[in-house]
Amino acid sequence: MEAAVGQHPLSAPTGPLRRADALAVSIFLIGCHTSQHIRRATPGEDAPCLPLTLNSHAHFDHAGGLATLQKASGARLWVSQGDADIVAAGGAGGYDLGPFRFLTYLWFLRYPAPRVDHRFKDGATIRVGPVEVTAHVTAGHTPGCTSWSFPVRDDDRELLAVHICSLTLPPALSLGEYPGIRADFERSFRTLRSLPADIWVAAHAREFGRYRKFLERARVADRVAPFIDREGYLRYIDSAEETFRKLLADQ
Ligand SMILES: [Zn+2]
């Protein structure tokens, strides 16, 4: 298996990425697939290694390290339209707390604000060297929560990998919503089900059984097989939707 999965935080990053790794929790990062380094370049440059950082959503545990990473690497940062303002403000203005949204402006709830270089739309296809990823805005957890899909080649078969943005229900759903949050979740369940995912990962390792899958990989002949898990993918979506429906029914 090459390219995308090898560069995902599933595997230990090397070189300059390591320093930022402690803060760059679950950041979906594309580096140079040959050198394993990221270097300064401009978007649109026809280079094999365009340094570009993409992440899943604006929460501190997924965006808190972006400014540090940006400083260390010089990488550009592209964020979905829905989350861009929140990320650029270091988390201020997030909708999680509903009517208590003003609390997100307090300094101790914020993270170092990175520079957002570009805002992409739902469905954007982003090419970096040999890797092409497609953005699927699966909003609800945050207004611009972004899942990513990308093909992964394993010898003569091509598999589709999907990085799911979180489907955890934010407190805003019970406290008071951000506009359209219910419709956003409904759309997100539909979007994710429609993707023919073979391999999936999520913003938190436990959600997709990373540890279990890596252990299993050491025991089987086909090292890719433990990661092919469409059932687990659908189960994750089903379980999130069930929690969502239950919460709505209880309200
Ligand atoms: Zn989150």
Structure characterization notes:
There is one protein chain. The protein has 251 residues and is of the alpha/beta class. The protein has a single domain (2-250), classed as Metallo-beta-lactamase, Chain A (4-Layer Sandwich), CATH 3.60.15. It is built from nine helices and nine strands. The chain has helices at 4-7, 17-21, 60-63, 66-73, 81-88, 172-175, 181-194, 210-217, 230-250; strands at residues 29-30, 52-54, 76-80, 118-120, 125-128, 131-137, 146-154, 157-164, 199-202. Helix 7 (181-194) packs antiparallel against helix 9. Zinc ion binds next to loops.
Question: How would you summarize this macromolecular structure in one to three sentences?
Answer:
With 251 residues, the protein is α/β, with parallel strands linked by helices. It is built from nine helices and nine strands. The protein has helices spanning 4-7, 17-21, 60-63, 66-73, 81-88, 172-175, 181-194, 210-217, 230-250; strands at 29-30, 52-54, 76-80, 118-120, 125-128, 131-137, 146-154, 157-164, 199-202.
* Rg estimate, integer Å: 18 Å
**Order of adjacent strands in the largest pleated sheet:** 5-6-7-8-9
Question: Helices and strands: which structural class?
Answer: alpha/beta
**Secondary-structure element string:** HHEEHHEHEEEEEHHEHH
Which hetero compounds are present in the coordinates?
A: zinc ion
User: What is the CATH homology-level superfamily?
Assistant: Ribonuclease Z/Hydroxyacylglutathione hydrolase-like
- State the domain count: 1
